[in-house]
Write a structure and sequence with these properties.
The chain is an alpha/beta fold. Helix content is 44%, strand content 13%. It is globular. It comes from hydrothermal vent metagenome.
């Protein structure tokens, strides 16, 4: 009899604990809090988006570009500055690839592949550490805080967060996964086959640049996102792949020779959510990329007060 009462008491206790946990879960406040640094219009759009997707039954996926979208890119991409600093210390590493690369546009598909081929022979862990070291030294204050807040809000509302970048996957995985508190495998970039822990020059496709970013979503995430955010013409196809919110950060007003309108005008015409975030270079930034190797300097963005009201 005592044994039976003991079992009943234990069962009652378990149900009580489960009930308390359920109550706590129900009491978590997932209500939208305006994101500091975004305009009232942007916050209203985000609040509506979260309300509209609240009862989504499938996977809730949000995809972000890396440089210029969640991470500042002035005066240079972290991928370039880290690599060229490494090159100064290793002048004899893959000279043919290196000399080819510095003559190419640093946003071209051949260049972003060469950036990974150049590092072939280095361990994946060393490459991850290289990226994190550069981040801590020069970019630790360049994570866009409004985007960090947005990502945190999305996670609280059940979203998977992914980064799709044309920068080297290995170099960005470690520091971005820590900063954004997402799985390291959710950072997808230019990658090559890893053999026995060593990076090779066998590039894995699709190349996440331009159309390849959309194909990377299809290949590696394997579902259609509810939100996609980018910052440049190279993100256009993946932004348009979103079945929900289409978002762009600091869109360029420049019209390239092969285009008829700027990505900023295209975004306005198609009712994308446009946000502006400060991205200015630090005074003591070394700029090895441009000073020693002639790599172009990325555009500075200074936000006007009127743009965040």
């Amino acid at each position: 009899m005592k044994k039976l009462l003991s079992i009943r008491s234990l069962t009652l206790y378990i149900f009580l604990i489960i009930g308390l946990i359920a109550c706590q879960s129900n009491n978590i406040d997932n209500s939208f809090k305006p994101i500091k640094g975004f305009s009232e219009k942007a916050n209203n759009q985000l609040e509506k988006f979260l309300q509209d997707t609240k009862n989504e039954t499938g996977r809730k996926i949000a995809v972000f570009d890396g440089d210029g979208t969640v991470l500042g890119q002035t005066p240079h991409y972290l991928a370039d500055e880290a690599m060229y600093q490494y090159a100064v210390k290793h002048p004899d590493l893959h000279p043919k690839i290196f000399n080819e690369m510095i003559k190419q546009s640093n946003v071209s598909i051949p260049y972003v592949q060469n950036r990974v081929k150049y590092i072939a022979g280095v361990s994946l862990q060393e490459y991850r550490d290289l990226g994190e070291k550069c981040f801590k030294k020069y970019y630790s204050n360049k994570i866009f805080e409004p985007m960090r807040s947005l990502i945190s809000t999305l996670k609280q509302n059940g979203f998977e967060i992914w980064i799709i970048t044309a920068s080297p996957e290995g170099m960005y995985q470690q520091f971005l996964s820590k900063e954004l508190k997402i799985p390291i495998t959710h950072i997808v970039g230019i990658k090559s086959v890893i053999k026995e822990g060593i990076i090779t020059d066998e590039i894995i496709k699709p190349i996440p640049q331009d159309h390849g970013k959309k194909w990377a979503i299809e290949s590696f995430i394997q579902d259609v996102p509810l939100l996609v955010a980018g910052n440049s013409r190279g993100d256009k196809e993946m932004i348009e792949f979103s079945k929900g919110l289409k978002m762009i950060v600091n869109p360029d007003e420049h019209i390239a020779p092969d285009q008829t309108e700027s990505i900023a005008d295209y975004a306005k015409k198609n009712d994308w959510l446009i946000v502006r975030i400060n991205d200015v270079p630090d005074k003591d930034f070394p700029s090895i990329s441009s000073k020693k190797f002639g790599i172009r300097i990325n555009k500075t963005h200074k936000v006007k007060e009127s743009e965040i009201k």
